[in-house]
Amino acid sequence: MSTKVTWLGHATVLVRTGAGKTLIIDPWLEGNPLCPPEHLAPRVDAILITHGHPEHLGSAVALADRVRPEAVVGSRELCEWLTEQGVTSTIGLNTGGSVEVAGTRVTMVRAEHSNGIRDGDRTVYGGAAAGYIIDLGELTLYHAGDTSLFGDMQLIGEMYEPDLALLPIGGYSTMGPSEAARACRLLGVSQVVPIHYGTSPQLSGRPEELLAALEVESPRCQVHALRPGESI
Does the structural domain 4-223 have CATH classification 3.40.190.10? Predict the structure, then answer.
C-alpha cells in the first residue's frame, strides 16, 4: 500500500494517496502546539472539516485561500459560513452523503458532539458534527472527528469496512481510551491511530491506556501511537 497517513497533533491528519493527491482533515496548523512547523503550509487537494470548533476548523480559511484546493468539505451550514468568508469550492454534505474528491470517495457519517463556529463575538450554528469514511481503493480510513462512543459504530463497520480508524482518546470532550477500544471492536478495524489527546491537560487519555483496553475489547487490533509529524 502506498497511502501515507500523518498525524499533525490533536485531530489534524494529512493523507497522501498512492495517486499523489493530498487531503487534510481538521487543519489546525497555526496555533496547534503539537503541529511540526514544516507542516504549516502543505500542498493539499482537499480539505475535510468534521465540525466548526476552532481547533478543528483551525486554519481552513487561510489554507484554502493559499492553496486553492479542489474541494473543501463540511456540513452544509459550515460550508455556507465558509463561503461567506470567501472560500470557494465548498461541498456541503449531510450525514450519509458521499462525494468524489481528489480521487477518493468521501462519505460523511454520524458523530456525537456539539458544533458551533466562533464568529467574532458570536457563535454560529455549524450543522451536525461528523466523521468521515475515506475510500482510497487500496484501503478505507475512518476519521471519527470529535465524538462519544455510540452503537451505530457497528453499522459504520458493517457498511464501510474501514481498515484503519483515527479515534479520539483524550476524554473530557470526547471518548477516552476505554470507549475508543470498544469502538474498535464495534468497527471491526485491524488498526487504530489515537488522536485528540495531549493538546491540553484535560485531554489526559493516553495510547498505553488504549492498548491495555484493547487487550480485552479487540486484542488483534494494532495501535499506531504516532508522534506529531510521524506517518504510517
Answer: no
